[in-house]
Design goal:
The structure holds 2 protein chains of 2 kinds.
Chain A: E1 2-10, H1 15-22, E2 28-32, E3 39-44, H2 48-59, E4 64-74
Antiparallel strand pairs in A: 1-3, 1-4, 2-3
Chain B: H1 2-28, E1 49-54, E2 63-69, E3 72-78, H2 91-94, E4 110-113, E5 116-119, H3 122-140, E6 145-149, H4 155-169, E7 174-176, H5 183-193, E8 210-214, H6 218-221, H7 223-236, E9 239-244, E10 246-247, H8 249-253, E11 256-259, H9 265-278, H10 284-290, E12 291-295, E13 315-317, H11 319-326, H12 331-338, H13 342-353, E14 359-363, H14 365-368, H15 373-386, E15 396-399, H16 406-414, H17 428-438, H18 453-462, E16 467-471, H19 475-478, H20 482-490, E17 495-500, E18 512-515, E19 524-527, E20 532-536, H21 549-559, H22 573-584, H23 595-600, E21 604-605, E22 608-609, E23 612-613, E24 642-646, E25 662-667, H24 683-688, E26 694-696, H25 698-703, E27 711-715, E28 720-727, E29 732-733, E30 737-741, E31 769-775
Parallel strand pairs in B: 6-7, 6-16, 8-9, 8-14, 9-11, 12-24, 14-15, 16-17, 17-18, 25-30, 26-28
Antiparallel strand pairs in B: 1-2, 2-3, 4-5, 4-18, 10-29, 12-13, 19-20, 20-21, 22-23, 25-31, 27-28, 27-31
The chains are: A alpha+beta, B alpha/beta.
The complex binds iron/sulfur cluster (SF4).
The site of iron/sulfur cluster has 13 residues of chain B, from helix 2 and helix 7.
């Protein structure tokens, strides 16, 4: 049951688009900063396979400049 | 039921993940704000048992709450009751419990036999350590055995080590890795005030208007304290000035970043004093009432040769002498030396000179790991003394510590060759006092200090020391000029015992490896940067046969025939040791809080007098030890006055030249705890910062056609290394300087560093040597 947190950095001026794109994934919880260009992203998936696939999809979002993982927990249940 | 438990656990883990991300974001984007409902803490965690402890890692000493379930630590959060961190943690703190569960934890003692390690029982391993130590003493004398400990030792660990070696065995071969990080702060305090450790406390942050950071990358090294500075800026508009040799996350978050050439902080600090005096900003009444002026020896050398010795010879001077000396440090002259503009020097001076501004100076390794470190510590005190901005809320020269108990264990217990828990070995009265509490004949305690850390490893190399016991530290990553000292330890007739929790390059050279109980797997106390002693109980069982360092020392002491002195009972030994230790510090100047107090609250500041912590020492309003009837009393020195020192600028031991044209500086990163032996086993931290690198200035990189990630060869007179280039990444060195972090045991930058040290503190200068840089 991987649970991960990331800092998602948007391309300049594209925070709104990034938030919108991320909110399409049911596995993602999103916490945009109110005053800086960064979005906290928490992902929760059932298996490591699903986790890898989700990360790939996120990486393809065009408004995303950089996705930096902060923590990864593999909860047994 | 189980289903709900699982949901709760997942929710909890998600909350943890969120908090980690928020703390990372806060370090990267100072002043970052998230919607308030998202910043709420972790839910109570219905099934968890939460207990308080100081964080395992840095000297900030954050209070954490550790959640355990079925004998395992499963969660950690900042303790909202802790006045240090008020519920916050940094990324290391949030992940600290994971350091307990690395796959390769040492759980069984290992003894080297014919070149391979063989598992043995703890009993046999301790028998061997004791018999080997006895044998070495009988063959080579008591000064042939040594212990090298740590600022990560708990207070009882250090106390047991000092009592065993200094009191029972009778050798002053006791040193600790805090010699490599805090010794200069100690000699700075002692020479200026006669007593060690800061006069103020973290609460100063809530009152200061200006913060001057002297070569101190607080955003990475003291992240929680730095967030308190940023919080004050949001609330009160305080100013943060970063005065450094390299542009860091701290510089980026500061109001002003001022860069100076390595070593020249000495000149700038003197120029600030010049400006204070020449602009009439000196607090004359304070200086006349509370200060003396002195000078010491100059051209002291750098300690590069074996058996180097230096003792300063202080000499009183007049204010006029001092004023004349400062004529060499007009802002214009200091600008020439330091590369700092006259305007910026004057700006810095004006903050100190403004009577309506409270100023806090903060520093750590930049000023301490400095071949004239004691001097530059003295100079910063000069600035605060000349303006009377000291020992009152918000006016505070504040030396920060790196390790969780560099203050508590090394400085206060006195685990350095010249020290005793109270006072120094050279003082007969101090020896008598310690001998009485230790229940040993006073003749046991030698009046002569033996070796400071660098010299101790030189003695090991020479063969003057044959047996060394190393606890909670990793010198074969952290010693400068590493090749020499590692080779010395590997010599055939040396016997090395290492107590640790994971395999390291230091355990690699050990003859015996003792598995240690870590942090909350045992009971203990740490003392942080602000004189706060914090207690933690045993919350977990250590793995396998792992045993606390205190217990290992007690067991060996008993085997060596010191049962009488090591009378402690298994169940109560920590309490017994702490109560015995408190006797050394009785009195208004250093009284330690009783154990019941430490158990009931997130620590207490010493001197703890009449049931109260002393927040500002030397100030009669707050400090019951002041007895001269005046507003301030610097009672550490016989005449009750502090010393303003005449200390010049002198160059570093090795400066760039034609062959080695760059400066090399080394340091830490936020993700890793020092040599990384614990944090590299925390997957999140390891992934965030997996490998060492070399930072270059973009102009140098461009000229040398080096791109980010390209391999770069660094060569000094001592060794060479290849590292990937980091350009415009986390930190940006000034032109013709490079920076390399030292956490990565696969890239040992200390094979290149120089073992020059401050002649007064004997602390090595890891920030300055000359290096050649080539693209490969
Ligand atoms: S700032 Fe230091 S003490 Fe506080 S949580 Fe981080 S590592 Fe631990």
């Amino acid at each position: 049951m991987p649970i991960k947190s990331y800092l998602a950095h948007p391309h300049s001026g594209m925070k709104e688009e990034l938030v919108l794109a991320l909110s399409q994934f049911s596995e993602c919880d999103i916490f945009p900063s109110e005053n800086k260009d960064v979005v906290i992203l928490i992902t929760e998936t059932a298996t490591t396979d699903e986790d890898d696939k989700l990360t790939e999809k996120i990486q393809r979002i065009s408004s995303l400049k950089l996705l930096a993982m902060v923590s990864g927990f593999n909860s047994p249940n | 039921m189980d289903h709900f438990k699982n949901i709760n656990r997942r929710k909890f883990v998600k909350q943890m993940a969120l908090l980690s991300a928020m703390s990372a974001a806060a370090t990267m984007f100072p002043g970052i704000i998230f919607a308030e409902e998202q910043e709420k803490g972790i839910p109570a965690g219905a099934n968890l048992d939460w207990k308080k402890a100081p964080c395992r890692f840095c000297g900030v000493g954050c209070g954490v709450l550790i959640g355990t379930e079925n004998g395992k630590a499963v969660a950690v959060k900042g303790d909202p009751k802790s006045p240090v961190n008020k519920g916050l943690c940094c990324v290391k703190g949030y992940h600290s419990i994971m350091a307990l569960y690395g796959k390769d934890r040492l759980t069984k003692p290992l003894v080297k036999k014919n070149g391979t390690y063989v598992e043995t029982s703890m009993k046999e391993a301790l028998d061997l350590v004791a018999s080997k130590m006895k044998e070495t003493i009988s063959e080579n004398g008591k000064d042939s055995v040594a212990i090298y400990g740590s600022g990560q030792w708990t207070i009882p660990d250090g106390y047991a080590a000092s009592k065993l070696f200094k009191g029972c065995i009778g050798t002053n071969n006791v040193e600790a890795n805090a010699r490599l990080c805090m010794a200069t702060a100690v000699t700075g305090f002692l020479s200026s005030f006669g007593l060690d450790e800061p006069m103020g406390c973290y609460e100063d942050i809530d009152y200061a208007d200006v913060f001057v950071l002297w070569g101190n990358n607080m955003a990475e090294m003291h992240p929680v304290l730095f967030s308190r500075l940023l919080d004050q800026r949001l609330k009160r508009g305080v100013k943060i000035i970063d005065f450094a040799t390299r542009t860091t996350r701290t510089s980026m978050a500061s109001d002003k970043s001022i860069l100076f050439k390595p070593q020249t902080d000495l000149a700038v600090a003197n120029a600030i004093c010049y400006e204070i005096i020449h602009n009439g900003w000196m607090n004359k009444a304070f200086v006349e009432e509370h200060c003396n002026f002195s000078k010491g020896l100059t051209n002291m050398g750098y300690g590069l040769e074996d058996n180097y010795a230096f003792t300063d010879k202080p000499e009183k001077i007049s204010f006029e002498d001092y004023k004349t000396f400062l004529n060499d440090y007009t802002p214009e002259k200091a600008a020439q030396i330091s590369g700092v503009s006259v305007k910026d020097i004057k700006l810095l001076a004006s903050y100190f000179g403004d009577p309506n501004k409270k100023v806090m100076s903060l520093w750590c390794m930049g000023m301490n790991q400095h071949s004239r470190g004691t001097w530059v510590n003295n100079l910063v005190y000069n600035i605060h003394l000349l303006t009377g901005k000291i020992s009152e809320p918000g006016n505070s020269p504040f030396s920060l510590t790196g390790q969780p108990s560099a203050c508590g264990t090394v400085r206060e217990v006195g685990t350095l060759t010249h020290k005793l828990p109270h006072g120094v070995v050279a003082n007969k009265k101090h020896r008598e006092f310690a001998a009485k509490i230790w229940d040993v004949p006073v003749e046991n305690i030698s009046p002569k200090p033996t070796y400071h850390t660098v010299e101790m490893f030189r003695a090991l190399d020479r063969g003057d020391i044959r047996f060394m016991w190393i606890q909670v530290t990793n010198p074969f990553v952290s010693m400068p000029k590493l090749n020499r000292y590692r080779a010395g330890a590997e010599k055939d007739d040396r016997f090395i015992v290492v107590s640790d929790v994971y395999p390291t390059p230091t355990t690699d050279v050990a003859d015996v490896i003792l598995p240690s109980a870590m942090w909350v797997e045992r009971e203990g106390m740490y003392g942080n940067s602000e004189r706060r002693t914090q207690y933690f109980e045993q919350m977990l069982e250590p793995p396998g046969e792992a045993m606390s360092d205190t217990m290992q020392l007690i067991e060996v002491a008993k085997r060596m025939g010191f049962e009488k002195q090591f009378y402690y009972k298994d169940e109560t030994h920590i309490e017994e040791i702490y109560n015995e230790y408190r006797k050394h510090h009785e009195g208004d100047k250093h009284n330690m809080a009783p154990l019941e107090v430490l158990k009931s609250q997130p620590g207490a500041l010493w001197p703890y007098v009449n049931g109260k912590s002393t927040k500002w020492r030397y100030n009669a309003k707050y400090d019951p030890a002041c007895s001269n009837g005046k507003d301030f009393h610097f009672y550490g020195l016989p005449d009750g006055k502090a010393v303003i020192w005449q200390r010049p600028y002198e160059p570093a031991a090795e400066e760039p030249d034609e062959e080695y044209p760059f400066w090399l500086g080394t340091g830490r990163v936020v993700e890793h705890w020092h040599t990384g032996s614990m944090t590299r086993r925390i997957p999140v931290l390891h992934q965030a910062m997996p490998k060492a690198y070399v930072e270059l200035h973009p102009d140098d990189a461009k000229r040398m056609q080096i791109k980010n990630g390209d391999n770069v060869k660094l060569t000094t007179r001592r060794g060479q290394i290849i590292l990937p280039a980091a350009i415009d990444q986390r930190g940006i060195p000034a032109p013709m300087q490079v920076f390399v972090p030292f956490f990565d045991e696969s890239k040992l930058i200390n094979e290149l560093t120089l073992d020059s040290f401050c002649p007064i503190s004997k602390e090595p200068d890891y920030k300055k040597c000359a290096v050649k840089v080539e693209k490969v």
